[in-house]
TrEMBL record:
Protein known as: TonB-dependent receptor
Family to which the UniProt record says this protein belongs: Belongs to the TonB-dependent receptor family.
Keyword terms of this UniProt record: Cell outer membrane, Ion transport, Iron, Iron transport, Membrane, Signal, TonB box, Transmembrane, Transmembrane beta strand, Transport
Database matches in Pfam families: Plug (PF07715), TonB_dep_Rec_b-barrel (PF00593)
Subcellular location: Cell outer membrane
Top-rank taxon: Bacteria
Organism placement in taxonomy: Bacteria, Pseudomonadati, Pseudomonadota, Gammaproteobacteria, Alteromonadales
Protein topology in the membrane: Multi-pass membrane protein
Length: 817
């Protein structure tokens, strides 16, 4: 974090979001020496698994320290989007299941795709689903852009996000904070470090309880949406005995709310809505809802429970040789049920006629009781994961060579029910007269697709940097990875009238093919391997100018679709790995322009992707495509029960490319005023589409989505003004942040561009005490804006967006000791 100091005075902070190097900081820091000259302070990051100056790191890395996180009012994973231009967060099922997107690379919205961007907690890779990391007592967050693998955990083609919790200290210290805000927000958080054995053993306990009412009025079934109800507790133990250091972290997190706002924005014709005879009713409902009102067809929910255990062991054999081992264990229990079309129910004359004519239901069916909803979903993911990374680090050849050799292992497997995807299209609820039980409610469809995935990844890697001269070095990384997965999957065998909730059972039921609970079950296996590498040249041209050029070859594993396909889709049961060749050229420089310190960081990047993995939507059987003479259904059988889960097929669409520029400019104009401007400008192309033999896929391949939520331009400007206030507070710090993004593209859907303004004022050291007080306002102008697309399907006839928060304000108080 940049810190600006005046002799005997105060520290000031600036919300300075940056794309290259330390692209964003809520505080830009400068120091003033005794001669009153302002200089840029050194910023230390760990982007290459060691402490070093950010201005001499040959990678695009964004760093936010604890103060920066506070001043940006970051309380959840998704808050990072406006804090770090060039990344996208959202679009995969709500705040507790974020979709990380960097340089157009992400993961499939459905199925078993490996993420192109991996998040890490204390350097342990997080599960692909339910990967929201609680923003509690964080020391820093770093975002690395571009292919990773020779230095961090799993192979990725987009980047890595590193969450570093605060470690215990050997002094008694900590803080307690409370927040009160709009929509009855109540938050209390705190942490304390306790020395147990002087300079040898220390513990830290951190806790956070955050509650807020929902800001979206739900006039349908269930409670108001977008509320917050989270609890987090973390215990850390640090042991330091000579050359031996061990850090143990146990982290528990729970979140439980009534779902999030999804708002329908477009109706397409002709579509399945016409076939059901409900298109006019749908249009009327869409026109009658504003962006802060939802009419849910059922009681939604979003729940996440996480347990994370990390043990980090370091041992120094000599000053030039050390050993590091990082062990991780995680349990994730994610369960969310979103009303993904954002609509209520409708009276469908088509379904009414079908039910009345059904020989099994006709005599029992209650006329006029049929209520049809368009698309409803449920996802349950119960997974446990272990990982271990061991590194041998050293310095050789008179310290001219810094090197790391390591081995990485990860295994994720089902924990209980594994993963269940339940997406029902044109679900109809109705009543019938049961001869014994009386009047009952039933559904015309229900159940879900069950995935029991065991995913294993092993790798050996080397990374080294050799100083050719005092200013020029060469950097080389090499990694060999093997990925294997075994997947048992199938469909619910639950009779439709028992309801739409999926039935929970364990993996043995799937493997045994128990047809009383699961149908169409089978085991799919897939393996892949790759050698990835990086090669770079680093030149410290002067003390203040650093340039670098790096070539990287990256990879992410293949995966599988569900349920078990037959017919025309059989060849698309699995998909191949994706590989990328990436080039990045950067220059980082500090200047003094007439006594004004200025920092400019600029980089150019270009990635060429082969076998690009893409989502293909619309894989559902609807009445409009199963009429006589029309057979263009996903697998050609006009049977909706074996359609792709969620209507999405992940496949290798072809070859793609991404290129762009990242820019950061920071200036200290006066002792009190600092400003910054940051930008990401990028472009993406589908260079080649592979031949597809399947008629359904060939007809829709142009709508495949290899780039989820790709934005061409993102800009951010920041102002920081900081002054001492004698007799009242030590300092007053005012921050203003402006964020603007172009359209976010998802296939045929464009989420409109928007801009946001956030402000915050901090009073440090109130009345000479250790109490800080802050007032913040996010989305100052109360703009209504879409942040992701929930559903976008021309065949179904709907486009619905997830909307961002309205104006939110809060008052914080914190006591430091």
């Amino acid at each position: 974090m940049y810190t600006l100091k005046r002799q005997g005075a105060f520290r000031t902070n600036l919300l300075a979001s940056s794309i290259i190097a330390v692209s964003f900081h809520s505080v830009n820091s400068f120091a003033q020496e005794e001669n009153s000259a302002l200089i840029l302070e050194e910023v230390i990051v760990t982007a290459r698994r060691t402490d070093e100056s950010v201005q001499s790191v040959p990678v695009t890395v964004t760093a936010l320290d604890a103060d920066a996180l506070r001043e940006a009012t970051i309380t959840s994973t998704t808050d990072l989007q406006q804090a770090v231009p060039g990344i996208f967060l959202g679009g995969s099922g709500g705040p507790q299941n974020p979709l990380y997107v960097i340089r157009g690379q992400s993961k499939g919205l459905i199925g078993t795709t490996s993420p192109a961007v991996v998040s890490y907690f204390a350097e342990v890779p997080q599960p692909a689903w339910g990967s929201a990391v609680p923003q509690v007592d964080m020391a820093n967050i770093q975002i690395l852009k571009g292919p990773q693998g020779t230095l961090f955990g799993r192979n990725t083609t987009g980047g890595a996000i590193l969450y570093a919790p605060t470690t215990p200290s050997h002094e008694l210290e900590g803080y307690v904070g409370v927040t009160a805000g709009r929509y009855d927000q109540k938050r209390i958080q705190g942490a304390v470090s306790v020395p147990l054995i002087e300079d040898k053993l220390a513990a830290r306990i951190a806790a956070d309880v955050n509650k807020r009412d929902g800001y979206t009025d739900n006039i349908g079934v269930g409670g108001d949406l977008d509320k917050v109800d989270t609890e987090a507790l973390r215990f850390s133990l640090l042991a330091e005995f000579g050359a031996f250091t061990n850090t143990l972290i146990v982290d528990h997190f729970e979140s439980d709310n009534d779902g999030f706002n999804i708002h329908p924005v477009s109706v397409f014709q002709p579509s399945g809505l016409n076939a059901l005879g409900v298109v006019d009713d749908v249009i009327a409902q869409v026109d009658g809802l504003d962006e802060r009102t939802n009419t849910s067809a059922f009681a939604q929910h979003e729940r996440n429970k996480r347990l994370t255990v990390v043990n980090r062991t370091e041992f120094e054999f000599t000053e030039s040789l050390s050993l590091l081992n990082i062990f991780g264990y995680q349990e994730t229990d994610l369960d969310y049920a979103p009303n993904i079309d954002g609509l209520g129910t409708f009276n469908s004359p088509v379904m009414e006629a079908a039910l009345s004519a059904d020989p099994a239901l006709g005599p029992l069916y209650v006329p006029g009781s049929a209520q049809t909803s368009i698309v409803k979903a449920r996802l349950i993911d119960q997974t446990k994961q272990i990982s271990n990374e061991i590194q041998l680090r050293g310095h050789s050849f008179d310290d001219r060579l810094d090197w790391i050799v390591g081995y990485f292992y990860l295994k994720a497997e089902p924990d209980g029910a594994g993963q269940i995807n339940s997406t029902t299209v044109f679900q109809t609820q109705f009543q019938f007269n049961h001869p014994v039980a009386g009047l009952q409610t039933a559904y015309t469809n229900g159940g879900g697709q069950h995935f029991f995935l065991t995913d294993e990844s092993e790798a050996i890697f080397f990374h080294g940097e050799y100083d050719l001269t005092d200013s020029l070095s060469v950097e080389v990384g090499l990694r060999y990875t093997e990925d294997e997965f075994e997947l048992c999957l199938g469909s619910d065998a639950v009779p439709a009238w028992l309801g739409s909730d999926p039935v929970l059972f364990d993996e043995s039921t799937c493997r045994n093919g128990d047809t009383s609970q699961i149908l169409n079950s089978a085991v799919v296996t897939e393996s892949s391997d790759a050698t990835t590498w990086s090669f770079g040249l680093n030149w410290q041209a002067t003390d203040d100018v650093f340039t670098y050029a790096v070539l990287r070859h990256g990879y992410r594993a293949g995966g599988a679709n569900g349920p078990i396909f037959d017919g025309d889709l059989a060849d698309y049961q699995t998909f191949d790995p994706e590989e990328v060749d990436d080039f990045e050229l950067g220059i980082k420089a500090d200047w003094n322009l007439g006594g004004i310190p200025v920092r400019t960081n600029l980089s150019y990047f270009q990635g060429e992707y082969e076998n690009a993995q893409a989502d293909l939507a619309g894989g559902v059987t609807t009445p409009s495509v199963c009429t006589e003479g029309v057979t263009l259904t996903p697998d050609g059988d006009c049977d909706a029960t074996d359609d792709p889960t969620g209507g999405a097929v992940v496949l290798n669409v072809g070859d793609t490319s991404v290129s762009g520029v990242d820019l950061e400019v920071v200036a200290r104009l006066t002792n009190a005023l600092s400003v910054s401007f940051n930008a990401t400008v990028q472009d993406a192309d589908i260079d080649k589409i592979y031949d597809q033999d399947n008629a359904f896929i060939a007809s829709r391949i142009g709508g495949a989505i290899p780039f989820l939520y790709f934005t061409n331009n993102v800009y951010q400007a920041n102002i920081n003004y900081s002054i001492p206030v004698e007799g009242f507070v030590e300092e007053l710090v005012f921050n203003a942040n402006y964020y603007s993004t172009s359209e976010a593209v998802k296939g045929d859907t464009e989420i409109p561009s928007y801009s946001l303004t956030n402000i915050r004022a901090d009073l440090r050291g109130v009345a000479g005490s250790s109490i800080d007080v802050a007032l913040y306002v996010n989305n100052v102008f109360d703009k209504e804006y879409g942040i992701s697309s929930s559903i976008s399907s021309r065949p179904l006839g709907l486009d619905s967006f997830v909307y961002g928060p309205p104006r939110l304000w809060g008052l914080e108080a914190r006591y430091n000791f």
